[in-house]
Amino acid sequence: MRKALVSSLFIMAISVGCVVPMYDSSRDIRTRQLIFISEGLRHIPRIWERIWGLEMPDLATPYRTHGGVI
Predict the structure, then answer these.
(1) Nearest Cα to 23, choosing from 38, 8, 44, 6?
(2) Residues 16-62: pLDDT tens digits?
(3) Residue spans per domain, the chain
């Protein structure tokens, strides 16, 4: 039980970048990696708006209507 817990924590630490660095040590490759990651993060607000339906047009009228038969 303890071995499984320690090994799973170690694997999680490696994937996050705590034990082994997450990015390359070369400046050129590291810059390319960071640009790639930031491009993916740039789309989060658009995805959030699409999930909550915020980009849909508002169908409510901007003026008051009578509502009855005239």
Answers:
(1) 38
(2) 666 667 788 889 988 888 888 888 888 888 888 878 877 666 666 66
(3) 23-55
CA distance linking residue 32 with residue 24, whole number of Å: 10
The closest alpha carbon to 29, from 19, 21, 12, belongs to: 21
The Cα-based distances of 47 to 34, 38, 39, 56, 58 in angstroms read 20, 15, 13, 13, 19
Q: Are 19 and 13 in contact (CB under 8 A)?
A: yes
